[in-house]
Design goal:
Blueprint (H helix, E strand, L loop, with lengths): L1 E8 L8 E8 L4 E5 L6 H9 L6 E6 L4 E3 L11 H6 L3 H4 L7 H13 L15 H14 L4 E5 L7 H16 L3 E5 L3 H7 L2 E6 L2 E6 H4 L2 H8 L3 E8 L2 E8 L6 H6 L4
Helix pairs in contact: 4-5
The chain binds adenosine-5'-triphosphate.
Adenosine-5'-triphosphate (ATP) binds next to helix 1.
Pfam family, one: ABC_tran
Family: Belongs to the ABC transporter superfamily.
Organism: Arthrobacter gyeryongensis
């Protein structure tokens, strides 16, 4: 379980990224954080995971969270399996080396996200999408009932996006509590019962069906957005249509070429 109560954060005094953010993530549910670039999604999930201390308010976690950062190049040439084994740190303990149970848990997590064949590859030599999947395996290997993910499908192809969304729904069905940031309102609708919108006029938390509407999403992103929401086998699905603006071919024809 994760609870944020009136949480505010700013990197500099008097310059808040967000304030008065309150929500609870219960076991077996997901909450999605949405907002434009720079609105504070990464900052909020890092506060929730305990990687940043809030400037005001309280973050309550029953256990430490498994955390999936946005994929980043690692300067250290660890094997992929060793990266995943690092997720077992709290089970291994200080001054001990990982045992067979830790290796089995790490390998099982790699299999679960479909990266078992990458186990001996050096992490920096993996593609961005492969690195992202290995980082998700590392968080799963930690075995925490709370998983916090920062834009987990960034850089993934369509099949791997479906793989990750399916995996996250399986983890929820196992009783895990999930908090994720995302640029995909349709993914939020599919996974999350609750959303947090980080907008220009402040943060709002509420039900996904109530807040993921044409009006709210158009206001949040500042472009016309149309949605089509439906439920298939009890699973929420959403199609998003963004208005990409007028035809610019005539205008560019008028523009003088250099
Ligand atoms: N270490 C830092 N020091 C100062 N300001 C920062 C720092 N990290 C982020 N910021 C600023 O805080 C704000 C929120 O950043 P954050 O990365 O949380 O946004 P985001 O919603 O995750 O963005 P994106 O969608 O582009 O990933 C931005 O204005 C950003 O420039």
């Amino acid at each position: 379980m994760l609870e944020l109560d009136q949480v505010g954060f700013g990197y500099n005094p008097r310059n808040w990224v967000f304030r008065e953010v309150s929500f609870t993530v219960s076991p077996g549910t997901a909450t999605a954080v949405l907002g434009p670039n720079g609105s504070g999604k990464t900052t909020l999930v890092r506060c929730a995971a305990g990687l940043l201390a809030p400037v005001e308010g309280v973050v309550l976690r029953e256990q430490s969270a498994g955390f999936v950062p946005q994929a980043h190049g690692s300067a250290f040439a660890y094997r992929a399996l060793d990266m995943v084994l690092m997720g077992r740190a709290k089970h291994v303990g200080v001054f001990r080396t990982p045992g067979n149970a830790d290796r089995a848990a790490a390998f099982e997590a790699m299999e679960r996200v479909g990266t078992a064949e990458l186990q001996d590859r050096l992490f920096p030599t993996l593609s961005g999408g492969e690195q992202q999947l290995v980082l998700i395996a590392r968080a799963i290997a930690a075995g925490s009932p709370l998983l916090v993910l920062d834009e987990p499908v960034t850089g993934l192809d369509l099949k791997n996006q479906v793989r990750v969304l399916t995996l996250l729904r399986e983890l929820m069905a196992d009783g895990m509590a999930l908090l994720l940031s995302t640029h995909h309102p349709d993914h939020a609708m599919h996974l999350a019962s609750q959303v947090v919108l980080l907008g220009r006029t402040g943060a709002r938390a509420g039900g996904a069906a109530e807040l993921l509407t044409d009006v709210e999403l158009s206001r949040l992103y500042g472009v016309p957005v149309s949605t089509l929401s439906y439920s298939d086998d009890g699973v929420a699905r959403m199609t998003i249509v963004v208005d990409y603006g007028p035809d610019v071919s005539e205008r560019s024809a008028e523009r003088p070429h250099k």
